[in-house]
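Aim 2, interim progress: modelling of the pyridoxal-5'-phosphate-bound target.
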Amino acid sequence: MQYFSTNKQSPKVGFKEATLMGQAPDKGLYFPAVIPKLKKDFIAEINSYSKEEIAIEVIKPFVGNSISENDLQKIVTATVQFDFPLIKIGEDISSLELFHGPTLAFKDVGARFMSRCLGYFVKGNNKKITVLVATSGDTGGAVASGFYDVPGIDVVILYPSGKVSSVQELQLTTLGKNIKALEIDGNFDDCQRLVKQAFADEQMKKDIFLTSANSINVARWLPQQFYYFYAYKQWQDKGNPPVISVPSGNFGNICAGLLAFHSGLPVRQFIAACNENKVVTEFLQTGNYVTKKSVATISNAMDVGDPSNFVRILELFNREFQSLKKVLSSYSFSDSETKSILKEVYLNKSYLLDPHGAVGYAALRKYLNNHPHHKGLFLETAHPVKFYDVVEPLIGEKIPVPAAINELLTLSKKSIKIPAKYEELKNYLLSQN
Ligand SMILES: *Cc1c(COP(=O)(O)O)cnc(C)c1O
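Predicted structure of the complex, ligand included:
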């Protein structure tokens, strides 16, 4: 597979180069030159495929021959080592639980796949690679866990001070070894801006081989397609495909779903479920794409004012607004609406949502109220315990803590606090080299 840059000013590259570089030299995002078409039998017979077989079938065209078949098998098997259950929580709504991985959020799949691909590509290299990543909360933990102790790779994570949950912070600041956490005195957009500046710094890149583990990296973005196939496999009424609601921030996950749809996966409608950061919701209403400064919410992994993957969605639809609107709807919810949905679903359905899943549920509910003959699922993108600080006061109960988190809570954070200034980041990176 060849990948072109969405800015069209850089040469096409293969999967290996796209993974190593993260972003294209012209600052565009890499995008597959062709959208592979799924075999008809694959969809018709999906129930006879294992989750590993589904993953291989989906990802193989994108990887091409840059990884041997045998090694790709191993990478994929290690990537999807946990469950992705579809849980029915009402007559017309199910929850696809994507929080059964090691850091209890969906980003584990992308981070595990990417770290293993990168590890494969740098084997035998004598130059160290530095993975630089900005996180609004969950990316940091997933990337830290995915890359922990991978030889030849250092990871530097930038996170906004005081704006991630305590579990999230511990997940990214306690591993040590090749994982370094920079606590930025600013918000997520500041973190993302600093990372972009580092990638644009040609002088520094002569000394340090930098790559990104944000969902702009194709190796993190593409495997997120698996979720949508796992959902469809478990979907009972194959003749009436699901409406799928995706809690969205940087729009990598939903873009992977839309890519799967373009390859032939049956989906009735996609819904981008947003919090108060609603650039895309407003775009679909007005046709005007106006980025904003992000505002802090209780679904903090979605606090993105300028979603980097949206350009890929436009690319998928040839930048045709009307055809995009037919497939993609979007709703936005305030924190108080999110809280009341979370409470209501817990009381009436005995199902505990996390704040991101609550936004996903709310958006799906709203869509189905207007389309009563359809049924749907939302992606439950994180375990509620990750946000116990928000969730417990709402339900007035303690959330049972999984063993992995209990252990985490006994550790103490190690981070380096720096102002949101590029010079500070640069000095740090050069000092590490
Ligand atoms: C990252 C994240 C999101 C947003 O996903 P995008 O791919 O950035 O749109 C939603 N929910 C949770 C829990 C997340 O960690």
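The two ends are 33 Å apart (CA to CA). The chain has a mean pLDDT of 95.
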